[in-house]
Amino acid sequence: MSMASGRVALITGAGRGIGRGIAIALAGRGWSVVINYRSDAEAAATAVRLAENAGGQAVAIQADVASAADRERLLTETLRQFGRIDLLVNNAGIAPRQRVDILETDEASYDEVMTVNLKGPFFLTQLVARTMIALLEAGVITQPRIINISSISSYVSSTNRAEYCLSKAGMAMMTALYADRLAAYGIHVYEIRPGIIETDMTGPVREKYDRLIAGGLTPIRRWGQPEDVARAVLAIAEGYLPFSTGEVINVDGGFHLRRL
């Protein structure tokens, strides 16, 4: 049975970092949020509490987006809990377990990163899109949206984590493909490209990026925060880009600018 009649967002990888920031921001606007996590139940419980404190309803659902069975269960449980889905945010992603030169990258690392970062979101989006179409036809939802959280690594070469760059480049095309296919149904699809964001993933290279940012790597000379990405998600979720789909939104401190 549905827990709420309001809008419902499913955010993958929402226990920590950018995903948690997105969940809290949406909850603050009255959204009900599904906080998907793979293994850290304690972090997910904290995210649920913070989202509820922000004013929304929240539930944590364990599922590995790399698993077809888990993807099915994640959507089924979302519908069981809330009866609808208005927004999918494909945020879950991993970096390689080790940064290795492209000439030494092995197939195990390639397969793991590509499965989590690209194959999983691709097929989860397929499942959710079919459901959104049915819910639109039934009059349950009116303006569904899909947002893919990509990275500046979709176009910036990092030869010691090639599999990560390839997965994010693939997500860029995935966004274009789904935006094209789903526009006729009124389902708009967007890509948000974060730059250097302060999260657990960037923790190991903190000193490196401190130096680069101080040296002018980005025109806006500070680390990005999960809240910066969340604000871009809110703009889409709240309907402020009604005549856009397939759009790329850079949240990168101006990194993408070509400067002399």
Strand order of the largest sheet: 3-2-1-4-5-6-7
Query: Which range does the strand content fall in?
Result: 5-15%
Q: Radius of gyration from the CA trace?
A: 18 Å
Count of separate DSSP helical elements: 7
Compact overview of the structure:
The chain is α/β, with parallel strands linked by helices.
How would you describe this structure to a colleague?
This protein has 260 residues and is of the alpha/beta class. The chain is built from seven helices and seven strands; from the N terminus they run βαβαβαβαβαβααβ. α3 (68-82) runs parallel beside α4 (107-137). It has helices at residues 17-28, 41-54, 68-82, 107-137, 162-182, 206-214, 226-237, and strands at 8-11, 32-37, 58-62, 87-90, 145-149, 188-194, 247-251. The protein has a seven-stranded parallel sheet, sandwiched between helices.
Helix-strand blueprint:
Blueprint: E1 8-11, H1 17-28, E2 32-37, H2 41-54, E3 58-62, H3 68-82, E4 87-90, H4 107-137, E5 145-149, H5 162-182, E6 188-194, H6 206-214, H7 226-237, E7 247-251
Parallel strand pairs: 1-2, 1-4, 2-3, 4-5, 5-6, 6-7
Helix pairs in contact: 1-2, 1-7, 3-4, 4-5
